[in-house]
């Protein structure tokens, strides 16, 4: 009798289905939040997002890269909810123009030098080493990312920038590219954000050399909500979490609050 | 059977009807399902086509991006403006096309693609690709990133175009140096673009890859659907055929079944009739035989019954058969019926004349016992004989069971045992009486023994109690006779005095006492004086000679012989006396303390105040005791302080703080208060003790001192600025006059101007040093102590000192080379100042071609000692003591060698502030050995940079071929502006523009970006720091070097300048050489 029933029910079932339904991989009607993030802060941000997604029924997407790039992306695309660059100089113009409506301080970024683990070439913390022809130097592009921007600021102040560019074997768009250069042993020395060395994927693959605090300043890390936000309540919750004790613990773990 | 026959045809018809209906419905369903599945299949086909179009679009996007990259390369190699314009046009076209593709991929739409169908691009084919984005509500990160990167690329191309245009101009000018430079610039630019392009291509690959995956997924969905579709169609067809076959089979099977069943029923009926006849015949013959057998059995039973009746009747004792269910007598012999049966039918009516069965307590029923035990029983009953007399009978009961083992009856017979029972009873009674008499006597004897034992135990216990009491009492109990001789002393004598009691028995009591007054008083008198509540106190020595103070009471008692004896109760009060003395001393301390002391209970009620409290507050002891200290509250101490105080002391902690309190007279005063909770032996807080000090005068003095210090600080700040401003003009203009090439001075004027310049420099140095000294003494001076590698400042100081030493041909050597030196804790700037001062002194007070040596040793643990040894003129012994005194110079004629006379004073103070020490040994004509120490640091030294950077850069010179550099000077002071303008008139490679305020300066810099900015810090409107921030915040001027020029040489200002990232700091008065060198160094790089 089961067979009879199947044949009776089949046409009814087909009638009840939408024949023009798109065969999606999974049903997803959760609200989507878009975050523009600098490369260096990606890991702590992922942890914070995991907490948010666990608390709220939402999906968070991140577009990341150099801070200059994500700033341009906000300008061009004019969508998204949160802007999180690696240096406050990228967020200040957006705050002034009203594109970023509110912001929170979540940590600090500071430039340092990175060498191979164990410092086999016995390189000192002097920025003059970036001029050493015997060393393979890779630096960040000032146009793309905050790390390159900060590198240019410091080296220009010391009047070394153009010589260092000449000595660099290539330039990367962001801090990840610099970390990869050290990990792949393409570079002997790179200037990069101090927190990059504290990221889980980089621990043990590079060694940090501090630059004098006279030259390398602490740059506030500011997270801001965009005026284009489709889900301002969710964006605010992410901002609140990032600046709360649990959020700050996460940023401290990744070296953004030392 | 008849029921089955009726329903069978009906069931067949229903089954056939249902099957026909199902068949029709299945067929209709199959047709409809086929139509719907076909529609779904068509939709999936269209989706697949859609995704293939997207895939093609993403592929074209990749292709366009690669072409874009190639074109950018072409632009870098362009040889003319026309080529650039051509490439730019192509790039723009590509850019637009890429944006269009992105738009279609993101939002859907149609894109016309033109393909070349031959190599020379002469024949083209146009194809239209349309795409519908079914997931447009989802955020596509790749498109977002690609759009942003393409926008950035557009800007890069614009900048790159300008670079390439500049290259073409340079190449046309054919200057090989410039060509190399511009080629390097183009190459550098490409270094920046390459990774950028890689990222764009990564995005496009990801987009392509995502499209490919989606296409494959849709293809897979489509394939799966097609397979399912075919399977469903086949199954449906099979099912329809199966239904038809099933229908025929059901009809055939049902008809055949009906015929077969009818045949079977007929055969079964015939067999059944035959069997029934056989059974009736067999049953009839069996019944006849059974009747005959029963008749024989009845006759046998009757015979047997008669025999038994006769036997029972012949018995002399009563015999019964009793029904177990109702006590009815079923059978009884004649002996049983001899008594007056009175028509009784039950056993209890017959034997006991009762209307219910016997109870089981004293007259047990044999039937009940037999029922319980299911065994023969024997009981004794009292019955009455036929004369009416009571007799004791022994009743025997035997159970009778049926064939199933059920107890149905009991056989009972009775024996008369009255005579036997009477004899037994008389014997037992006599025995009981005898036993009772014996037991009573035994009990009386046991009670007497027990009473004697209790009396003995009480006596022993009492004796032991009094013995322990005497032995363990801490007081000495002594018994003396009327003449004062000891007859007994308790064992405590040994414990307290170390003297065995046996040794003092017989001794005269007066010989043991140290006090003369007591020794000679007779015992009866002592008894009169101290027998009541007034004890006597006296001193006595123990076995070791230590003096004990005893307190005794004396009591008289009469002995057995009628004479009087005396008991002396003595207590050792040595410790108590000592405590009383100590307490007296402490009371005196509290009473005479200049601080007021208040003791309160745990509720804050005052229990004690000392005289100082009375003096300070005006409240007498009598007034204060019983009050709460809040009587002193003025209302000017914050309430929170009292809450903190109460919370702290109730938690058992000490509280310290200050109050503004009010005296009894209403006058306010300041108090420094320390409140301590005191505890008893159990650790419970019992009291609070407050020690209070009147600090009214001290606070007034402190305020005056702070005010004075602030005034001094303000004075220093003003002095610094006011003295430097006129000196700026004096030193600057005199330097310009000496250096002027347009208006050169004659020798005499040069000499005079040189004197002015030298005096100005001397005055400037003097002002700097006086301000330094004043800052150190005022405490405004701060040090940035950090862990430093000694080499970092030793090498730099040595290098600077060499330039001084070269003029006098003095050789300076560092003997510390090759030594391993630990880090020291010091302020980098100040330690260099110390070293330079000592080194410059060693050079100044040296002979031509002399030597100066710097050495470092670790002779003092925890310190590093720095030595500066010269073989110069030395210091006379009488002047050595004044070496660190301000304005006292070691020379007889101070004008011989330039100096202010404050340097060594500052040096000493700086070294001491950094935690070190300074000293020297000197001998006239042999030289001096100055040394100072600094504490060694355990911290890791962070490697500093730039220690020799300035040295390296100092060798660099402005390229004479370089273009003229534009300098913006932001300054409000006209004299300073004029000086700077004059200064720049001499310089060919610099042009100076001026802004009088910070706002103007920022506006000018943004309008026409200068090569360098000189910034005064003290400006009207926004100050130099604010202007600096505005300039650094704007991308146009972000990388323009800014040098601070200021008369404010305060340490915190210089630190702030460095912290903010100024490219340099030039103090006023401006040293022209320093200014030019700083600018040259900055602009050179």
Layout: helices, strands, pairs:
The complex is a heterodimer of chains A (258) and B (1085).
Chain A: H1 2-16, E1 32-38, H2 42-55, E2 59-65, H3 67-77, E3 82-84, H4 92-97, E4 100-109, E5 111-115, E6 137-140, H5 146-157, H6 161-167, E7 168-172, H7 175-183, E8 189-193, E9 207-210, E10 219-226, H8 232-243, H9 245-253
Parallel strand pairs in A: 1-2, 1-3, 6-7
Antiparallel strand pairs in A: 3-10, 4-10, 5-8, 5-9
Chain B: H1 2-76, H2 81-107, E1 109-116, E2 124-131, H3 141-173, H4 176-313, E3 319-323, E4 329-332, H5 347-352, H6 366-373, E5 377-384, E6 390-401, E7 407-416, H7 418-472, E8 476-481, E9 486-489, H8 492-497, H9 501-504, H10 509-512, H11 516-519, H12 523-530, E10 536-541, E11 547-558, E12 564-572, H13 574-592, E13 596-601, E14 606-609, H14 611-617, H15 621-624, H16 639-650, E15 655-662, E16 668-679, E17 685-694, H17 696-739, H18 747-778, E18 786-788, H19 790-807, E19 811-814, E20 824-826, H20 828-844, E21 851-857, E22 863-870, H21 877-880, H22 903-913, E23 918-923, E24 927-935, H23 949-954, E25 965-970, H24 974-985, E26 990-995, H25 998-1007, E27 1012-1016, H26 1024-1033, E28 1042-1046, H27 1051-1060, E29 1064-1067, H28 1072-1084
Helix pairs in contact in B: 1-2, 1-4, 2-3, 3-4, 17-18, 17-24, 18-22, 19-20, 20-22, 25-26
**Mean pLDDT score of chain B:** 80
- Indicate the overall shape of chain B: flat
Q: Class of the largest domain in chain A, according to the CATH hierarchy?
A: Alpha Beta
Residue stretches of chain B low in confidence (pLDDT < 50, at least 5 long) are 1-8, 939-962
Query: Helical element count of chain A?
Result: 9
Cα-atom radius of gyration of chain A: 23 Å
Main beta-sheet strand count, sense and barrel state of chain B: 5 strands, antiparallel
What is the helix content of chain A? 25-40%
Low-pLDDT regions of chain A: none
The domain tally of chain B reads: 7
- Under CATH at level 1, the class of the largest domain in chain B stands as Mainly Alpha
Alpha-beta content class of chain A = alpha/beta
CATH architectural category of the largest domain in chain B: Up-down Bundle
Helix/strand structural class of chain B: alpha+beta
Using only C-alpha atoms, the radius of gyration of chain B works out to: 67 Å
The tally of strands of chain B reads 29
SSE run of chain A: HEHEHEHEEEHHEHEEEHH
């Amino acid at each position: 009798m089961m067979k009879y029933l199947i044949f009776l029910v089949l046409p009814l079932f087909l009638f009840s289905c939408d024949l023009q339904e798109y065969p999606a991989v999974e049903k997803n009607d959760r609200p989507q939040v878009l975050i523009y993030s600098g490369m260096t802060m990606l890991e702590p941000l992922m942890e914070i997002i995991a907490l948010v997604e666990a608390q709220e029924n939402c999906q968070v997407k991140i577009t990341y890269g150099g801070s200059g790039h994500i700033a341009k992306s906000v300008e061009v695309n004019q969508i998204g909810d949160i802007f999180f660059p690696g240096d406050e100089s990228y967020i200040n113009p957006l705050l002034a123009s009203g594109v970023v409506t509110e912001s929170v301080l979540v940590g600090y970024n500071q430039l340092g030098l990175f060498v191979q683990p164990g410092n086999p070439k016995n390189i000192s913390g002097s920025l003059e080493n970036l001029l050493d022809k015997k060393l393979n130097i890779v630096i960040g592009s000032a146009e793309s990312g905050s790390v390159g921007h900060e590198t240019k600021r410091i080296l220009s102040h010391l009047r070394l920038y153009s010589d260092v560019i000449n000595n660099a074997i290539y330039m990367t768009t962001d801090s990840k590219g610099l970390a990869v250069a050290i990990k792949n042993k393409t570079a002997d020395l790179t200037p990069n954000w101090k927190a990059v060395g504290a990221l889980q994927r980089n621990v043990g693959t590079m060694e940090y050399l501090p630059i004098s605090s006279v030259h390398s300043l602490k740059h506030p890390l500011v997270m801001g909500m965009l005026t284009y936000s489709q889900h301002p309540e969710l964006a605010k919750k992410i901002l609140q979490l990032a600046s709360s004790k649990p959020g700050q613990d996460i940023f401290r773990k990744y070296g953004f609050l030392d | 059977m008849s029921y089955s026959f009726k329903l069978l045809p009906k069931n067949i018809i229903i089954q056939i009807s249902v099957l026909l209906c199902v068949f029709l419905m299945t067929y209709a369903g199959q047709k409809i399902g086929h139509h719907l599945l076909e529609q779904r299949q068509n939709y999936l086909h269209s989706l697949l086509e859609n995704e293939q179009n997207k895939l093609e679009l993403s592929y074209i996007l990749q292709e366009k991006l690669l072409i874009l990259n190639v074109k950018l390369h072409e632009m870098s190699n362009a040889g003319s403006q026309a080529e650039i314009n051509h490439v730019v046009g192509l790039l723009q076209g590509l850019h637009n096309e890429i944006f269009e593709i992105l738009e279609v991929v993101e939002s859907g739409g149609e894109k016309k693609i033109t393909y070349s169908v031959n190599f020379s691009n002469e024949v083209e084919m146009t194809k239209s690709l349309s795409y519908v984005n079914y997931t447009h509500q989802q955020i596509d990160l790749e498109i977002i990133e690609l759009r942003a990167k393409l926008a950035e690329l557009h800007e890069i191309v614009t900048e790159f175009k300008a670079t390439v245009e500049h290259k073409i101009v340079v190449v046309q000018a054919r200057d090989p140096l410039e060509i190399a430079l511009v080629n390097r610039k183009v190459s550098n630019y490409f270094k920046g673009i390459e990774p950028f392009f890689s990222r764009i291509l990564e995005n496009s690959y990801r987009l392509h890859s995502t499209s490919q995956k989606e296409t494959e997924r849709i293809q897979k969905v489509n394939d799966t659907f097609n397979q399912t579709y075919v399977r469903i169609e086949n199954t449906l067809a099979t099912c329809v055929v199966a239904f038809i076959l099933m229908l025929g089979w059901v009809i055939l099977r049902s008809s055949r079944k009906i015929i077969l069943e009818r045949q079977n029923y007929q055969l079964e009926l015939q067999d059944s009739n035959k069997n029934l006849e056989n059974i009736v015949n067999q049953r009839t013959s069996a019944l006849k035989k059974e009747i005959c057998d029963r008749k024989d059995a009845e006759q046998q039973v009757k015979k047997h019954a008669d025999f038994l009746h006769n036997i029972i009747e012949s018995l002399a004792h009563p015999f019964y058969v009793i029904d177990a269910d109702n006590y009815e007598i079923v059978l009884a012999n004649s002996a049983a019926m001899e008594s007056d049966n009175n028509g009784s039918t039950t056993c209890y009516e017959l034997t006991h004349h009762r209307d219910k069965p016997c109870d089981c307590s004293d007259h047990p029923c044999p039937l009940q016992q037999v029922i319980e035990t299911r065994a023969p029983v024997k009981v004794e009953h009292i019955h009455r004989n036929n004369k009416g007399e009571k007799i004791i009978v022994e009743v025997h009961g035997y159970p009778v069971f049926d064939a199933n083992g059920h107890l149905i009856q009991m056989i009972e017979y009775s024996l008369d045992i009255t005579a036997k029972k009477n004899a037994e009873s008389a014997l037992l009674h006599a025995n009981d009486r005898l036993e009772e008499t014996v037991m009573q006597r035994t009990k009386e004897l046991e009670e007497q023994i027990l009473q004697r034992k209790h009396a003995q135990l009480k006596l022993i216990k009492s004796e032991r109690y009094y013995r322990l009491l005497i032995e363990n009492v801490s007081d000495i109990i002594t018994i003396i006779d009327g003449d004062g001789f000891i007859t007994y002393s308790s064992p405590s004598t040994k414990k307290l005095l170390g003297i065995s009691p046996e040794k003092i028995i017989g001794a005269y009591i007066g010989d043991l006492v140290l006090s003369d007054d007591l020794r000679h008083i007779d015992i009866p008198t002592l008894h009169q004086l101290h027998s009541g509540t007034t004890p006597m106190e006296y001193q006595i020595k123990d076995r070791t000679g230590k003096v004990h103070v005893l307190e005794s009471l004396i009591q008289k008692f009469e002995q057995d012989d009628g004479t009087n004896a005396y008991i002396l109760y003595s207590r050792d009060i040595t410790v108590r006396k000592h405590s009383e003395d100590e307490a007296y001393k402490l009371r005196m301390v509290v009473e005479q303390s200049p601080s007021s002391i208040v003791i309160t209970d745990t509720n804050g009620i005052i229990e004690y105040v000392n005289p100082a409290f009375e003096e300070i507050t005006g409240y007498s002891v009598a007034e204060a005791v019983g009050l709460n200290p809040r009587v002193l509250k003025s209302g000017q101490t914050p309430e929170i302080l009292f809450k903190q105080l109460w919370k702290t002391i109730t938690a058992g902690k000490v509280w310290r703080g200050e109050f503004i309190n009010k005296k009894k007279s209403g006058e306010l005063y300041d108090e420094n208060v320390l409140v301590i909770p005191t505890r008893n032996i159990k650790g419970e807080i019992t009291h609070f003790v407050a020690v209070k000090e009147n600090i009214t005068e001290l606070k007034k003095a402190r305020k005056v001192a702070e005010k004075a210090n602030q005034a001094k600080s303000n004075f220093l700040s003003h002095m610094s600025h006011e003295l430097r401003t006129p000196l700026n003009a004096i030193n600057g203009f005199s330097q310009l006059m000496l250096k002027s090439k347009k208006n050169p001075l004659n020798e005499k004027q040069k000499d005079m101007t040189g004197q002015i310049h030298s005096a100005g420099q001397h005055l400037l140095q003097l002002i700097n040093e006086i301000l330094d000294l004043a800052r150190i003494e005022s405490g405004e001076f701060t040090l940035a102590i950090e862990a430093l590698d000694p080499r970092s400042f030793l090498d730099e100081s040595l290098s600077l000192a060499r330039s001084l030493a070269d003029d006098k041909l003095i050789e300076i050597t560092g003997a510390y080379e090759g030594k391993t030196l630990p880090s020291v804790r010091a302020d980098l700037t100040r330690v260099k100042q110390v070293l330079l001062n000592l080194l410059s002194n060693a050079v100044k007070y040296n002979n031509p071609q002399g030597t100066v040596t710097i050495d470092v040793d670790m002779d003092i643990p925890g310190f590093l000692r720095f030595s500066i040894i010269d073989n110069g003129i030395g210091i006379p012994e009488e002047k050595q003591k004044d070496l660190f005194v301000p304005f006292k110079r070691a020379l007889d004629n101070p004008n011989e060698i330039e100096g202010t006379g404050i340097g060594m004073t500052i040096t000493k103070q700086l070294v001491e502030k950094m935690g070190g020490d300074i000293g020297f040994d000197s001998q006239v004509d042999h030289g001096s050995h100055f040394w100072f120490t600094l504490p060694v640091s355990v911290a890791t030294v962070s490697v500093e940079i730039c220690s020799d950077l300035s040295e390296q850069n100092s060798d660099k010179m402005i390229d004479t071929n370089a273009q003229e550099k534009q300098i913006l000077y932001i300054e409000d002071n006209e004299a300073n502006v004029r000086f700077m303008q004059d200064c720049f008139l001499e310089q060919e490679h610099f042009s100076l523009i001026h802004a009088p305020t910070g706002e103007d300066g920022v506006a000018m810099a943004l309008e026409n970006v200068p090569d360098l900015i000189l910034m005064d810090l003290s400006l009207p409107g926004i100050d130099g720091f604010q202007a600096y921030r505005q300039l650094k915040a704007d991308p146009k001027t972000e990388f323009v070097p800014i040098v601070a020029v200021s008369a404010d040489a305060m340490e915190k200002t210089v630190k702030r300048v460095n912290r903010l990232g100024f490219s340099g700091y030039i103090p006023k008065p401006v040293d022209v050489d320093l200014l030019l060198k700083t600018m040259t160094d900055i602009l050179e790089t």
